[in-house]
Amino acid sequence: MSSQDELSHEWMDSLGNCSPRKERTGLGEYGHPLGDDCDTLEPSFVDTAQLFPLMETKLYKRRWVMLFVFSCYSMSNAFMWLQYGIISNIFMRFYSIDSLAIDWLSMIYFLTYIPLILPVMWLLDSRGIRDVVVVGSAFNCIGAWIKTSTANSNMFAMTFFGQFVCSVATVYILGIPSRLASLWFGQQEVSTACSIGVLGNQMGIAIGFLVPPILVPNVDDMTELAYHIRIMFYISAGVATFIFVLVIIVFQERPELPPTQAQAQARSIQPDEYSYMASIFRLLRNKPFMLLVVSYGLNVGCFYAISTLLNRMIIEHYPGEEVNAGRIGLTIVIAGMAGSLICGIWLDKTKTYKQTTLVVYVLSLVGMLVYAFTLNLGHLWVVFVTAGVLGFFMTGYLPLGFEFAVELTYPESEGTSSGLLNCSAQIFGIIFTISQGKIIDKWGTLAGNIFLCIFLLIGTVMTGKILTSAPCPRCNSAVIMLSTWNRTENNKILLILYYC
After folding, report:
1. What is the pTM of this model?
2. Best exposed site among 83, 140, 319, 422 by fewest CB in 10 Å?
3. Residue 23, pLDDT score
4. Please, which residues have CB within 8 angstroms of residue 463's CB and are 6 or more apart in sequence?
5. Which CATH number fits domain 62-469: 1.20.1250.20, 3.30.160.20, 3.30.420.40, 3.40.309.10?
């Protein structure tokens, strides 16, 4: 038997019937992360633990600058996603197009993501986070400048092309928060950092709900309307350009010293020891993760559909309330930002990924039901309240999904797992947006929202299944996955451990 096999068997024997607590870390970082059932340690456990040399780690203050720069970049791109949809009735009249064409200005973000996510995630693994962020911010800047020339009623094709270029930048954004958090932040702040990274995107959505109705009033004079649209496009381009320059100057690949022992050991992996396609196939065979992929897609797809069609839903029951439609969208996102931050802090404190994800999913379903049945009551203040409750849980679920995915798939690349989650969200976003739009046109907003509630119920059931399908130390599932074997200069074996 090889020395690797001997060590693996020693670890299995030493664990016995323990219930190990999953930590996204190397063993040396927190000692022996075992449950309370393990009061004593076998000699083999102690001997093996000595093979984990402590490496030098450090938390840099610059990590917050990296997070801020990325959040600004994500914010700019998210704003341009919604700048058409929230005043869809105005752009429909300006470009003389139908509602489906306007919806595609939002859905192009979803469609672009699906074929590009795998090559971009390969680029993230092979070239690193800086190159991905620089390229993405360049696409964001170019797309914004293309749209500055489209404030003309016969330029819809060009504005669609500019939106397409901006949508390419989204592929370089959505999988970054969990990777950035792992590269720069400590074990006790990684979930909070991921939540803040997602907050940047949500802040852009919030601004996208609030600012366009203010910058582009619903006036009858087409020349004046074109002027207001042009102003909005130039502001977007100026901000995108400033952020692009900031990314080039400030953004770094990774800190000189790793923030955790897990990252220190991950750096010891040789490039030829990692296979991107093998990692994809391992993820596709991971049943709990695939359940999360589908349930995450259902939840976030519903959010995308609501965001895209919000103007139509509000205007149907409250004619002439374009500005308040934007404010309601702002309420959804601001409440979701609070939910995201609270969930991130909660995860860092408790590490209760499964339970928290299920509770938030159930409450998202409840919030959607309440919103659906109160939208037509004729009281805008009720819509504001119910939309805020819906946003708190539905938008707050976004970073939860990322962090839960990393926990289910560690030590696979955070960017790869996040990319697959987002790919699912884009697919369901297209399906739900088109379907709900057709249902609203034929049967009204209540039927469209009930349509989304049905799929949120399915997602809730699937999330519950994750709790029963995750690996268990008392069944045939592996308690420990020996993901990487590598020898240091001292010829000591390094392991990255996965605790179920």
Report:
1. 0.67
2. 319
3. 43
4. 291, 292, 295, 357, 358, 361
5. 1.20.1250.20
